[in-house]
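Handout, page 2. Input:
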Amino acid sequence: MKREIIITNDGSTTIRIPDWNENYHSTHGAIQEAKHVFIKNGLELFQNQDSVSILEIGFGTGLNAFITFLESLNKKKVNYVGVEAYPVSEDEVKQMNYVSELEATQYQTIFDKMHSCNWESEQKITDNFILTKRKQFFQDIEDKNQFDLIYFDAFGFPLQPELWSDVIFKKMYDALLPKGVLVTYACRSSIKNAMLSVGFSIEKLPGAPGKREMLRATKKA
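Output:
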C-alpha cells in the first residue's frame, strides 16, 4: 500500500494513504489536533494525579506519545501503552518533523527511542515515562480495569467502521478504570450510540481546528 508524507496546515507532517484517501492526522493540523483532542480534553483532566496510565489506539507516528511526554515533564509518571497493527517504517519516522515543530530538539533522542525500542515489552524511556508498544489488532485487546485514559485514534469510520463498533467500545470500557476517560477526534451518531450501548456517558465537545465536534466518553464509577 503506497504511503506518502504530507505537510498539514499547521506545518506538521503526517502520512497519507492515497488509495484510501485517508491520513494519519487531520490535514488541518496534526499537532493542533493532537493537543486539542488528547491533551486539552484528555490528559489535562488528570493534572492533579501523580501518575496516569494511558492506552493509545493507533500508535502510528508516535505524535501523541511524544506530546504526552512533553506535557508530563517533571509533573507526573506516565505508563503509556500504544497499540498498532501496522507500525510505520524507520524511513517514515525520520521524515516526521514533530520534534522541530514542537521546538523540542533537546528531546530528539526521546522521540527516536520511542520508535527504536523493542515491541511487546515495557521500555523505560525516562524515569517518568514507561512505554509499551504492542503490535496487535484492536479486536484482540483484552485489558481489564487498567487505564485512566484512552486516546482513541483509529482510522476514520468511513474506512474502518468495524473499529468504531459496540464490540470495540466494550473492550475500551473494560480496559478503563472506574471513572476512566476515552477521547477521540470523531463525532457521529453511530459512534456515540455504540459508546452509549456499552455503558459510557458521553460529552460532545468542540472539535480541533477544522472540525466541528469531538467525543469524550467516561466509564461509570
